[in-house]
Every structure is written in C-alpha cells, then in structure tokens.
Design brief:
By secondary structure, the chain is mainly alpha-helical. It contains 8 helices and 3 strands; from the N terminus they run αααααββαβαα. A hairpin with a 4-residue loop joins strand 1 and strand 2. Helix 3 packs parallel to helix 4 and helix 4 runs parallel beside helix 6. The two termini are 36 Å apart.
Length: 180
C-alpha cells in the first residue's frame, strides 16, 4: 500500500516549520485512508482483484447467490462465468470463455459436429469449479448439442516413472482423482 505524506508535496523550506509538520501529522492519516479507499474502488473494477464489497456488488447485479462455503476466489470465478456467457457465440468464443474460467491447460474441448456432441473435460486442478463450468455450458450451448462434461482424470502415463512402493501410499481413488 502506498504511504502518503503531505510534506513530500510542500517546498522543503515550508516543510521544516513546526506548524506544517503538525498539519501533516494530522492530515496524513486522512489522506492515507482516502488513498486506500481510492485503491479499493479501482481494484473492484476488475474481476481478478474484487474484494468482499466488489463481489457483493457484482452478485447483486447478476442475481447470484453465493454459497456459505465459497472463498473469494470461488465467488470471483462464478462472476466471471456469468459475465463470459455472451450469446450468440462461436466455438472459438466458447473456448475463450472456458479458458477464462479454467486456465489455458485446465480443460480440453472437442466438437463432434456430425453427432452434435460437445466433449469437455475439466482438469483436476480446477475440479472445484466443475459446477460453474456446467452452468456456463447449459446457458450458452444450443439445446440441440449434447454436452459430455466430465473431469480429466489422471492417466496411466503420468505414473510410468513411479514405483509401486511410491504409489502404494495413495488409494486408487486418490491416484485417479487428485492432483499429484
């Protein structure tokens, strides 16, 4: 956070007097509080830097009810999902929407146009956001396209350099469904 000192803005000759030092001592806390308020307002203009107040404002605007267990990041994620749901869209725009939510390597997506099927796999690292991706797809994908959404589980190839002893400390479910 930036520290504001009014003496820095005064000529050096004036800043040395006791009266101006006293004025600065009484005004600096108010200026710092004003600066902090200004910074919060600025930060709340961007989804990635929303604080509690900013999230509350966006949730009210978008008619989103946060869950009691949501972290600030979960709430930001949900807001981003709603904002990114622009219709009409193209396949590329849908990819951009999902990439915004899951990150560049947080998903795979494939369209089987002949079968009217969209296959989306969400990486385990963003599995907590699965329901939000599901809501996004329900809102933006046309009704005639079947959406096959699932988690992108760990695959055998990532365990080829591990010994049985190293993997035995994990359950089958952990090996399959947790980020390792």
């Amino acid at each position: 956070m930036r520290e504001v000192d009014i003496l820095d803005y005064l000529p050096k000759v004036v800043g040395k007097t006791a009266e101006f030092k006293s004025i600065a001592t009484s005004e600096n806390p108010q200026l710092n509080q004003l600066w902090e308020s200004h910074q919060k307002i600025f930060d709340n203009q961007f989804i990635n830097s929303l604080d509690e107040t900013g999230c509350n404002r966006w949730e009210k605007i978008l008619n989103i009810t946060p869950m009691g267990t949501d972290t600030l990041d979960d709430r930001r994620f949900r807001i981003a999902a709603y904002i990114n749901a622009d219709i009409p869209y193209t396949y590329t725009q849908l990819e951009n929407m999902i990439e915004t939510l899951c990150g560049k390597n947080g998903y795979t997506m494939e369209l089987e146009a002949n079968e009217y099927k969209l296959i989306v796999r969400i990486a385990l690292s963003v599995s907590k956001q699965f329901s939000e991706v599901e809501k996004l797809l329900k809102r933006v994908v046309p009704a005639n396209i079947l959406v096959d959404l699932a988690l992108l589980y760990n695959q055998y190839k990532i365990f080829t350099n591990k010994t049985h002893a190293q993997m035995s400390v994990f359950s089958h479910k952990q090996l399959r469904e947790e980020v390792l």
